[in-house]
Amino acid sequence: MIKAIFFDIDGTLLSHQSGSVPASTRESIRQLKEQGIKIFAATGRHMLQLEKLPVKGLPFDGYVTLNGQICMDANKAILYEAPIEPGDTEKMTEIFKQMALPVMVIEQNRMYINFVDSMVEEAQKAISTPVPEIGVYTGEKVYQYIVYGKEERVQSLAARLSDCKMTKWNPYGFDIIPKQGGKVAGIRQILKYFGIGEDEIMAFGDGGNDTDMLRFAAIGVAMGNADEAVKQQADYVTSHIDQDGIWQALKHYGIVYKNFFLS
Q: In 3D, which of 178, 204, 168 has the Cα closest to residue 70?
C-alpha cells in the first residue's frame, strides 16, 4: 500500500511551458491528501526558490531540498542537513574565486554566483528562474554547488573533489553534492521521521538527479518528457507533464479513483 509519494518539481509538478502546475496534478494531490497519502517535494531547488514558484501553496507534508542535503517538515523546520565537507569546500572556493567557470554557492539562507554568462542565462531560463545575484563567499557551510558549463569540463572539475559527485539537470547545469548525498539519502531521513517503509512509497521525476529515487521507490514513475536514460530506470513511463502525466500514472496504479475531466 502506498503511504507517501515524492515529487520532483521542475518538469514533474511544474510545467515550464505553461508556467504552472497542471490542473489534473492539483486534483491528483487533492485526492491523495483526501486518502491520507503524504506528499513530499524532492528537488534540487532551495526553499528560497520554492517559495517563489507556483508550487507554493501545495500541501506538502515535507521537503527534500538541495538533492537531499536539507530536509524539512511541513512547517519548514529542518529535520536533517548534510553540508559539503570542508576540504571540498576549500577547493570549490578557489574555483569560485578564479572564475574559470560560473559557480553558484548554496548555503542554508543564501544563494549567489561568482559571475554570469550565456550558459547560466540559458540554464536558468529553462527552469523559469532569474539568474542569481553576484556574491562573495564568507565562510558559511555550503550544502550544494551549481556549476554551469559544458559537461566534459564540469566533470573534470568534479573529479578533483574527494567527497563529492555531480548530477545533471540541464545541458549546461550541474549540481555538486556529497558522494553520500542525493535525493534517496534525504528520502531515507523523511521515511525514518514519519515511520514509513521503503516499500510504501512512490516517486515521480524527469531529470538525471531523479534516477536514484526512481530506482529506490517501490514504484518509480518517469514523466513522458523525461530523458531516455531516466525512463530506463523507471517502473513506469507516464505521459508528458502537460498531458496530465501525474494523473495518468496514478490512475494506472489505481491510486486515484474519482473522475476528472482531463485537458
A: 178
